[in-house]
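Example record used in the benchmark description.
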Amino acid sequence: MARQNYLFTSESVSEGHPDKVCDRISDEIVDLYFRRGAEEGIDPYQIRVACETLATTNRVVVAGEVRGPKIEKRELETVIRDAVKDIGYEQDGFHWKNNEVEVLLHAQSADIAQGVDAAGNKDEGAGDQGIMFGYACRETPDLMPAPIHYSHKILKALSDARRAGKGDAAKLGPDAKSQVTVRYENGKPVGVTQIVVSHQHVVEDLTSEDIRHIVEPYVLKALPEGWVNGKTVWHINPTGKFFIGGPDGDCGLTGRKIIVDTYGGAAPHGGGAFSGKDPTKVDRSAAYAARYLAKNVVAAGLADRCTLQLSYAIGVADPLSIYADLHGTGKVDEGKLEDVLMQAMRLSPRGIREHLKLNRPIYARTSAYGHFGRASESDGGFSWEKTDLADKLKAQF
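Model output (structure tokens):
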């Protein structure tokens, strides 16, 4: 019997966190290759990007493997600087205009390419081996776990206010972290016991109390009414000062925030990061497909919680296995559900790309505030958040 009364904590980080700066740059480069490929009439199924970024004091280094349109280093450097500028870094130690930028991209390995490319009667294979998980639950309208959902929401509200220059929020910098501890009763989220916000500030002499005065209204607005009370403990800039932020204060790397990117620890993770990878890499595309299917299972009313696992081998098109766990909340047989899901959409890399329309420059906006939980594309949402399979799945049972 699963525990019904407990505390659970998840964290989020802003787009100015050093690792998120790197995720953004890597995904901007993926988008650039897809945009340029479309302009030049290159088959998007031939485009390959595996891009890693490191950011530290006054320096950005980009490395990896690519295939597709020829893009000059000067143009790549411009995209990198524009991303840093958009995030908001114009500080000593990390400035979009003054950073040294090094681009070390080279051609994809021919050995990998021959395993992944379609040829003759061979379908496009997975870009690597691995396991991927998808998850959905009824804790929020977007069918996401409450702790990660509200951790993201707090930082997104503060980011929007900072960018708009609203009042004292203009004193905040791009780098920030949040953490929310949610109290569950009878298996449902009912309140918050601890709130952590560490936010960079661009006015040096601000105290923790000053920062709390700035951020508290946005935190309260982001959380459900009644979830914060006199017993809720606040930790706002607990070190006392957060003036030096971003890659100047802490080296950043692509792919180091995989739990922030997914379910905040409420579900398993296969270990593969998303950013900087084109959708032949099933670390990314199959994780999106697993979320899509899990969300549709819950939206169809087949369960209140659903975890799905997919597994792949490099160069092999179809998944090696699919596993469904409905956590005792299911209204259908899990074995039959696995069979139904395998028929509901083609789970090869090509099938996923076609079904979810992944051959597009959509990836930079995934790089902060989670890859899951945003349903409306007009609000920065994603195709894998749609519930357009729910009726079809329901009909199978």
